[in-house]
Design brief:
single chain, alpha/beta, GMP Synthetase, Chain A, domain 3, 2 domains, three-stranded mixed beta sheet, 16 strands, 33% helix, 22% strand
């Protein structure tokens, strides 16, 4: 299932009026169903709903604005259950129901953008107020999860001082091809298009730079990488940017240089991390970047002997921030050694155990974040002015 336009060739003019009336009721029932990623009814989201009838089968199609490839079967089941009472009687009694789920990813309107970024529909920043909260692990798994849901995805490692992407994706030692003397070709890794300062530096040249130099390096990687090169239609649906920790020059540079579709803030339940996460939320609010939501890492520890779960670092912090700052908790991830081990060995969880429980959590977070981009896409996308207040 990909994002494509679709039409059911079922000519409504040939359908008897009583069947037509019942099909309209089917459409109403589907329109009242809640979209799991936003919690809103499809009608309220103005999702595209199609209903047709042909040779004893009712065909339904729903198009959402975020990638949801893994949800096809669950969605079909929901539609069947919701429509079963309607199809138990009347002119459609006994009809089969076939339900398809599609998606179409819109572009965040970003005004004037550098040529190389025109191939990118939406840029999502993954940020944290402090280091050590699992931000890079979240960024790489979020990118892989968006790809698993059917989107074309790029990943930019903007953590200039500690570029970890090559280690996480098993691409150490690779160097990007250069085109035309100034453009980098992104390095493909596990279905993602990637770029990192780690590809450009050698181990002997650590990045000991002042702020303006670091911002310059980030700007160069962002605007001089041929994003979309090698993608199926030459475009990326999402470019996930793994930001450096904190709220300094680099974060402001990125927020000024490009119109971000939104930011995901990563935190842990500890009070200190939450204070820093709040700083991150406030910084993005200040530069008019929508905060898509909070990801709470290391929320629960599961005992490897008995399976008992407990919130070692406290609980409820992500919820509190989400409520106070009018954003949402996208998901809570367990404190699990496997997540770190898989990432350290170059095969992050979503790629290493795609059918596992943690990968499912990351995919849910990815769908919710992308759904929020869809909801926010209607709002103004001009480049923000920096408010120094």
């Amino acid at each position: 299932m990909t994002d494509h336009n679709h039409d059911h060739d079922h000519d409504h003019e040939d359908i008897p009026a009583d069947v037509q009336a019942q099909l309209e009721r089917v459409a109403e029932v589907i329109g009242a169903l809640e979209d799991p990623a936003t919690g809103q009814p499809l009608d309220q989201l103005e999702a595209d709903i199609e209903v047709g009838f042909d040779e004893g089968t009712v065909y339904t199609g729903v198009t959402l604005g975020y990638p949801c490839a893994t949800q096809q079967e669950a969605w079909a089941q929901r539609v069947r259950t919701a429509c079963a009472p309607l199809l138990a009687e009347g002119p459609l009694a006994g009809a089969e129901i076939q339900s398809d789920l599609y998606f179409q990813i819109a572009r965040t309107d970003s005004g004037e953008v550098p040529e190389s970024l025109r191939a990118v529909k939406n840029i999502i920043a993954v940020a944290s107020g402090k280091g050590g909260v699992g931000k890079s692990t979240t960024a790489v798994n979020l990118a892989l999860a968006l790809a698993a849901e059917g989107a074309s995805v790029g990943l930019l490692d903007a953590d200039i001082y500690g570029p970890s992407l090559p280690t996480m994706l098993g691409t150490e030692g690779l160097r990007p091809e250069v085109k035309g003397g100034k453009f980098f070709v992104p390095i493909p890794a596990q279905g993602l298009q990637t770029m990192s300062l780690g590809y450009l530096l050698t181990e002997d040249t650590p990045a000991v730079w002042r702020g303006p130099m670091a911002s310059g390096a980030l700007n160069q990687m962002l605007t001089q990488t041929l994003w979309g090169e090698g993608a199926e239609d030459g475009e990326l649906d999402y470019l996930v940017v793994d930001m450096p920790p904190g709220t300094g020059d680099i974060q402001l540079t990125l927020s000024q240089k490009v119109a971000l579709a939104g930011a995901v803030i990563v935190t842990t339940p500890q009070d200190l991390a939450l204070v820093d996460a709040i700083k991150g939320v406030e910084m993005f609010h200040k530069v008019s970047v929508p905060v898509l939501g909070i990801v709470e890492n290391m929320a629960l520890h599961t005992c490897s002997n008995c399976g008992h779960q407990e919130p070692i670092f406290g609980s409820g912090g992500g919820d509190r921030i989400a409520e106070e700052y009018d954003t949402r908790l996208l998901g809570q991830l367990p404190l699990a050694m496997a997540i770190r081990e898989q990432t350290d060995s170059g095969k992050p969880t979503v790629a290493a155990q795609p059918e596992g429980e943690v990968a499912a959590l990351y995919r849910e977070i990815a769908r919710k974040a992308a759904a929020q981009v869809w909801l926010d896409a209607d709002s103004e996308g001009a480049l923000p002015e920096i408010d120094q207040g």
